[in-house]
Amino acid sequence: MPEDIGVSQGKSAGLLGHEALWFFLHTLFALGTLVAMIVLIGLFNPDPNGTTPKLLGTLLAFVLPLMVGYTVANRQGDEIATYVWISGLLIFAVACVWVIDLPTGNGLCDDCAGHIFYRLQRTFFSIENGSGLLAGNGLAIGAWVPLSMFGYAIGARTALNH
Q1: What is the pLDDT of residues 75-115, one digit of tens each?
Q2: Of 88, 92, 90, 80, the residue nearest 156 (C-alpha)
Q3: Side-chain-side CA neighbours of residue 121 (13 Å)
């Protein structure tokens, strides 16, 4: 496809491909920050059922990507970084469909059958009484991953507004 053909909003195919690549890279930066945070917290062997590590992880899942997004956007000046929240929203939607499709039973949100929103709330947002679905990793998959992307996008938008 020739580079001079306008595809969307007067942008060439090459420019759109460049923006898509940076969107993907910014999404990876947000996820990489989250993975680094999880590994760092894991080095201290926290109690997996404790409230404090989960609350600290939730706070850091937002704050650390926010700082990284701010730094990257401040240096790069790329507005594409501000749209990473869309990746978070898509990942959350996929995780919701995944949890809704999971079977329930003994020890696996046995009182959630037929209650979709209760199942999602216990899987993704319950600190003390998780559903047991997703091998107990619902908070990390359904809350921390999207939260890291929202934080990254907010940090990028803050940097670009200054």
Answers
A1: 999 899 999 999 999 999 999 999 999 888 777 887 777 78
A2: 80
A3: 6
User: Which pTM value belongs to this model?
Assistant: 0.89
DSSP string, 45-92: ---TT-HHHHHHHHHHHHHHHHHHHHHHHHHH--GGGGGTHHHHHHHH
The label of the residue with tokens 């701010």 reads 70
Torsion of CA 95, 96, 99, 100, to 10 degrees: -150
Among candidates 96, 124, 122, which has minimal Cα distance to 107?
122
Angle at 107 between CA 106 and CA 112, to 5 degrees: 80
pLDDT computed for residue 4 by the predictor: 52
Separation CA 159–CA 162 (nearest Å): 6
Q: Is the pLDDT of residue 68 over 80?
A: yes
Whole-number Cα distances in Å, 49 to 90, 125, 137? 28, 14, 11
Please compute the mean of the pLDDT values over residues 3-7 and round it to a whole number. 51
For residue 61, give the amino acid letter: A
CA distance 93 to 115: 17
